[in-house]
Design a protein that fits this description.
Number of helices: 23
Distance between the termini: 41 Å
Strand content: under 5%
Strand order of the largest sheet: 4-3-5-6
Shape: globular
Structural class: mainly alpha
Radius of gyration: 26 Å
Mean pLDDT: 85
Oligomer: single chain
Number of strands: 6
Helix content: 55-70%
């Protein structure tokens, strides 16, 4: 098993490079910004549809009002996605351009929205006037939105890099000069997609968004099968096992399928049918990755409750609450589970078996697939039960998943626990042999000298008033733990320190105002692009390793001293 892990480690550079691809980042970052829309709109579906389960139906005008909010938010998701993906890609492309010649994100977003409407919306005319169909402005048009979001920023980049813009005299105010500089790339982008749409419709008889759905329909079906599900969720676990944030590579490829399937499931249920689409965000959050990638909920509580190893019991107890809400970095790096040969098999196999069992319940026991999108921090069993619109099958499945995960992980847990107990006994033996009862020299301590206000290097900060720290992790979970700990300590000790947390992709707006950014270990694959961003904004970047980072989240004094020492 050690040989397998060593071979896997050799492939890390390739996968890190893949994870840092600017187009994958653009899809991922674009969707992070869209999460408020997805979750907000789903709340109205919950209010509208859940009472139906118990025979209560809202009056027609109330239900129409709830659905109107959903349709005017989720119903234009692809239009928003085209703009947001383009904005995220523009951010990466701007790092390659001089600061005095930057592509304006707002102009790119407007051009992308117009381009998307051209290739994804069908116009029609009635007695009142010109209208357009909205069918592909929602989740069905996401793949077309991605293409538009990739192409428009590159057209702008070519124009700005080669100075194909209207140059105004120096006497013209900067805001007016910038507006004229946008005219040529804006006209090029919209004209390109306008001409493309004309010839594409002549060749295919349909719009680009509809054509993509037709062509990829077999892929959507295959992804919902047992083999497709195994590849998708096995890949997520595999990448995390080798130390690369798995969803960052896999999610951009399936995000469009996720949202399309949930929308389709909801419409099927509303029509009185059986929703059978499997791939969904809820399937990832609350089934395949129950407690986080690797389905770590059960193994965490095994450590906390059953471990004889003092170290594993402490790690399990410290990680139990975060893992219950899907934040599993404390157990991944604390045990550790990743790159640990003992857990290679259960870490990969458990998510696959979980989603297969879920599919069996949908295919053969009449349970619906996910019809609602819920926040990823919803505790797994609760998210599962709510997401499939409440059913007795879902309750049974939640219990079955916990039992099955326990059976899979238990023998590996016992083997690792015994290994750690033996290691601890050996350490205790060595410590006893080297101890001197007449002195306290052998007493280990993790005490940290308390940081005083005078120790904060305000001279190195941007506002000279406080040290502003941004902690970045993959999903905003552990970064929030560290930032909250720093803020709490700063308030208690009256220190000029302010900390903020951000998920990768949601950090760009915060970064320029910061003095230092601390990267969680799962950001290792993105550290080169983050270094470019940090340098661009004159921000000091600090990287961390696995156990080091988890230790910092638990000891705010140590974390602040670590940051100040780096400065």
């Amino acid at each position: 098993m050690n040989t397998i892990v060593k071979q896997i480690e050799k492939a890390q550079p390739f996968f890190k490079k893949l994870s840092a691809n600017i187009y994958l980042q653009a899809v991922r970052d674009g969707f992070i910004s869209l999460m408020p829309i997805i979750i907000f709109s789903s709340l109205f579906i919950l209010v509208s549809a859940v009472p139906n389960i118990w025979g209560f139906y809202w009056p027609t005008n109330v239900n129409d009002g709830l659905m109107k909010i959903y349709n005017y938010s989720m119903g234009v998701l692809s239009l928003m996605a085209a703009a947001n993906v383009a904005r995220a890609l523009t951010k990466s492309l701007n790092l390659r351009l001089p600061k005095i010649n930057q592509i304006p994100p707002a102009s790119v977003m407007f051009a992308s929205q117009i381009a998307f409407l051209l290739v994804a919306v069908d116009p029609f005319t009635n007695k009142v006037g010109l209208f357009f169909t909205e069918g592909y402005m929602g989740t069905k048009g996401l793949l077309a939105a991605f293409l538009v979001g990739f192409i428009v920023p590159n057209l702008y980049y070519v124009c700005f890099k080669n100075h194909i813009t209207i140059k105004m005299p120096d006497q013209v105010p900067q805001n007016i000069s910038s507006a004229f500089a946008n005219i040529i790339p804006f006209a090029l982008s919209t004209s390109f997609f306008g001409l493309f749409d004309i010839f594409f419709r002549m060749a295919t008889g349909t719009n680009l968004a509809a054509w993509i759905i037709q062509v990829l329909a077999p892929l959507f079906t295959a992804a919902d099968g047992y083999v497709g599900l195994a590849i998708i969720y096995g890949a997520m676990a595999f990448f995390w096992f080798i130390g690369i944030q798995g969803p960052s590579i896999v999610e951009p490829a399936v995000e469009a399928i996720y949202l399309t399937n949930v929308d389709a499931n909801m419409k099927i249920v509303q029509a009185g049918g059986h929703a059978t689409h499997i791939l969904a965000q809820g399937t990832q959050f609350f089934v395949a990755t129950l407690g986080g990638t690797g389905a770590t909920l059960v193994i965490t509580y095994m450590f906390a409750l059953w471990a004889k190893s003092k170290e594993l019991k402490a790690v399990g107890r410290a990680s139990a609450i975060p893992v219950s809400f899907g934040v599993n970095e404390p157990i991944l790096f604390g045990a550790p589970l990743i790159l640990n040969p003992v857990f290679f098999i259960p870490f990969i196999a458990t998510p696959i078996l979980n989603v297969w069992l879920f599919k069996i319940f949908v295919d053969y026991l009449g349970m619906n697939g996910f019809v609602f999108n819920l926040p990823w921090t919803t505790p797994g069993p609760i998210g599962l039960i709510m997401g499939v619109r409440f059913s007795i099958q879902a309750v049974i499945l939640a219990v079955a998943l916990i039992v099955m995960d326990g059976v899979i992980y238990y023998p590996f847990f016992k083997a690792y626990d015994m290994q750690k107990v033996a290691e601890e006994a050996e350490k205790d033996k060595i410590a006893a042999e080297n101890s001197d009862p007449d002195t306290d020299a052998n007493v280990a301590t993790d005490a940290v000298v308390a940081t005083a206000a005078g120790d904060i290097p305000l001279g190195l900060t941007k506002d000279k008033k406080a040290l502003n720290i941004l902690v970045i992790c993959a999903g905003g979970g552990t970064s929030g733990i560290l930032a909250n700990a720093l803020n709490k300590m700063a308030k208690e000790k009256d220190l000029p320190v302010e900390a903020a947390a951000a998920a990768y992709g949601a950090h760009s707006d915060l970064l320029p105002d910061m003095d230092v950014t601390v990267l969680a270990p799962q950001m290792d694959a993105m550290k080169d692009s983050l270094k470019q961003e940090a340098d661009h904004s004159d921000v000091k970047m600090i990287t961390t390793t696995g156990k080091q980072y988890i230790d910092l989240t638990r000891h705010a004094d140590k974390a602040l001293k670590f940051i100040v020492d780096k400065l």
